[in-house]
Design goal:
With 380 residues, the protein is α/β, with parallel strands linked by helices. The chain contains eight helices and 20 strands. The strands form six sheets. Strands 10-9-11-13-17-16-15 form a seven-stranded mixed beta sheet, with helices on both faces. Helix 5 crosses helix 7.
Length: 380
């Protein structure tokens, strides 16, 4: 255990110890002079030489100690190497608290793997999205010699693609019979909002057929207007000619638009081929535009120019094209995800003693006040 000062310059406040010294020199304990009749005939001279003398030494010592402690508080005392090395247990939310307590023992400290690491026994938090990051954080904040036990369900969710590598060897316990995170809801089928020119609605039937293949209750609407749909829809713009500014603004704000080949618009600089046929021709190109995506058919939507309209996989290819990319898998077999060692340990911050010092200062101040205000001090 190594003591240190985080702000040594604070000791400069020790110069204030001169204040109580001056106070005691200036204001000595009050003494009431008493004149005797026989003393009036005595010559007052010569007077004895005055000596430098401090009264009430205990009170002076308390005041000097109080100033010194305040200066030490400003210097922020701390110690290194004063860590609690008791074994720790952490558990993934979803594990039965009674089972976790039985495995750890009645007196062990068990915390949930969740932001803030709340104690098991408090309200159970929702399974976090970053289990791996939280485990690494807990490991990094532990003393190097503290043992760590991690309780996990058979299926672990919220992990990232990087293997779990910690600074210490942990006891990785899979709690059987514990349900893992619930399966994620299936991604809903896209909602197609088709806008076409009057008398040019022939391609609409291919898009409607694709929407019907996605779901028993297709989410599809087609009109000849030029209004933009809600942002969670996929806009299919089949109107030839310049694309209205309202459409590009809608895409910039986060929408996805799929344009016909005759739509006139400046495509994003990062556009690339997103769909090719068996002959290598580009059927759809596009790229990000602002917060959204702008796509465009490169061939007319007629079977003679684009035979893929009649292909069995047209609906699936179109769905993969317009939906947002799915996040990478985040569920693994817990037994296979056991952490390895080898990560570099982190330097633990020093433990400050300011709280204890404040308590001591309060006690010294209370003693000083009791001594300074006692009744006997002012008696004649």
């Amino acid at each position: 255990m190594t003591p240190l000062l985080l702000l040594p310059l604070g000791l400069a406040a020790l110069a204030a110890v001169i204040v109580p010294l001056l106070i005691h020199l200036r204001r000595r304990t009050e003494e009431m002079p008493v004149d005797f009749a026989a003393l009036r005939w005595l010559d007052p001279l010569p007077r004895p030489r005055s000596k430098l003398r401090f009264d009430e030494l205990l009170l002076l010592a308390l005041r000097l100690l109080l100033v010194a402690l305040l200066a030490l508080l400003l210097a922020r005392p701390a110690v290194l190497g004063w860590e609690d090395k008791a074994p720790r247990f952490i558990a993934v939310p979803g594990i039965d608290p009674a089972a976790a307590r039985k495995l750890a023992g009645p007196d062990a400290e068990i915390r949930w793997i969740a932001p803030g690491f709340p104690e098991v026994g408090e309200s159970k938090p929702a399974p976090p999205a970053q289990i791996s990051s939280l485990i690494r954080q807990f490991d990094a904040e532990l003393p190097p010699d503290a043992a760590l036990t991690i309780l996990v369900p058979p299926v672990l969710s919220g992990v990232d693609a990087e293997p779990l590598r910690l600074t210490r060897k942990v006891d990785w316990r899979v709690v059987e019979g514990t349900a893992g995170a619930e399966d994620a809801d299936p991604v809903p089928s896209p909602i197609l909002a088709v806008r076409y020119a009057e008398g040019q609605g022939a391609p609409v039937r291919y898009l409607r057929a694709a929407a019907e293949a996605w779901s028993d209750t297709p989410r599809f609407e087609a009109t000849t207007g030029s209004d933009v749909p809600p942002r969670d829809h996929v806009l299919v713009w089949l109107v030839p000619g310049p694309v209205p500014q309202s459409v590009t603004d809608w895409v910039n704000a986060g929408g996805t638009a799929l344009l016909a080949d005759k739509a006139e618009v400046a495509m994003p600089a990062a556009s690339q081929a997103l769909w090719r046929d068996t002959m290598g021709r580009t059927l759809v190109e596009g790229g990000p535009l602002g917060s959204g995506r702008l796509l465009r058919f490169m061939q007319p939507l007629v079977p003679s120019a684009m035979p893929d309209l009649l292909a069995p996989d047209f609906a699936a290819r179109l769905r993969d094209l317009v939906i947002a990319p799915a996040p990478p898998p985040a569920r693994v077999n817990a037994a296979a995800f056991k952490p390895t060692t080898g990560a570099a340990p982190y330097a633990l911050p020093p433990r400050e003693l300011s709280a204890w010092l404040v308590v001591l200062i309060a006690l010294v101040f209370l003693a000083e006040r009791l001594l300074a205000t006692r009744r006997r001090r002012f008696s004649a």
